[in-house]
Amino acid sequence: MKALRPPRSGKTHLILANLLLPAALLASTANAGAPILHFGIVPQQSALHLARNWGSLLQYLGKSCTLDLQFETAPDIPTFERRVAKGQYDIVYFNPLHYVVFHDSAGYQALAREKDTRLVGLIVVRKDSPIQNVRQLEGKTLALPAPESFAASVLPQAELESMGVHVNVSYVGSHDSVYLAVRQGLYSAGGGINRTWSQQPDAVRNALRILWQTPPHTPHPFATRPGLPSTQRQCLLRTLTHLQDTPEGLALLQQVQLKPLTAARDEDWDDIRRLGIHYQAPGEQ
């Protein structure tokens, strides 16, 4: 199904479910009339938080490649998945399971990934919680972002099941919501990942502690839709993988909590495929 496109414009559009953003985030990324590309970011955190962190990087990429990159996210991960399934995003940053699924069902092609970083899922509890071992989660309720949040939801549940630990699950919509809900004592524990954990304010991290971590896996990819012009794809790849070469580029990576990037290949995510996780893509159910 062809995704609906907004009118062409020379401005960066931050499509954030009716959120009004600071004017600084609406700066132009390219000359008027530059090709518009829709850049989708998985909503692991609030839309406003994501826009503030990713806006400068998208502006830099747009200027470097003479493109008008439109930042887009979704109110929750299931909605984001449905949009990816429809091919709504030209470029997308999403989790490894998303890539494996939507490479097959929607044709997304790997573009880049972090070079020397592995994705690790976490289970966190309040710092004053009496729980000291994951086996003590038996019968407790675990806050998770969404059913198909790979390292924050899928892996912890699979590992707990393999240990014979039975938990109840409540999906709260985002990683930020998980950490806040556990901090507030609404749930005994919650699932997240190393990157979003490191992005939490000190007030949140100081109130929580990491109880358990998953084995490491290939991290989130940047991917492009099938049919994206090769000149655009190559410019984006070149710019992304050379960000670490300048102080400005390094600062942009640090703003989104990413380490230096490298070109990605589809087989980089074979470790995810070997897990044999069954997932039915939205729109195919």
From TrEMBL:
Pfam short name (any one): Phosphonate-bd
Annotated signal peptide: 1-32
Alphabetical UniProt keywords: Signal
Record CDD domains: PBP2_PhnD_like
Domain of life (superkingdom): Bacteria
Coiled coil: none
Identification of the protein by name: Phosphate/phosphite/phosphonate ABC transporter substrate-binding protein
